[in-house]
Amino acid sequence: MEHEGTPVPASSAKPPTHFIQPDSSVAVSSIGDGVLRLALHGEFDHAQSLQVSEALDLGDRNGDVDVELDMSGVTFMDSTGIRLLILTRSAVHAAGHRLTITASSPTVYRVLELTGLVERFEVPEPVSDDPAPF
Question: Per the confidence metrics, is the pTM higher than 0.85?
């Protein structure tokens, strides 16, 4: 299957990482084996939420899947990012699947901690001890 000229592997142990758009900060590291793995980098705001939504559509087109998010590269997250996480989690759970945050940056952890969502999403401790930039 192709998405805007980028091949999407149907199933593979270690498929190549590719980006939704050439300048995207959302990398799809795999789609197959019932799991869609996304790595987010930079600012998780309105612009990136559109790219994340587009990546999630890949999972929808390839069948119901669990979603894993690596958010260790996120440097900023606003209410749009929080909203998308909550809506995505609800949709994925309603379909009988899981949304897992596999890694978080200090920024993501702090925002989700302040909003009371760390436990709900079972967010792991940040991968770095650097203070969250605010």
Answer: no
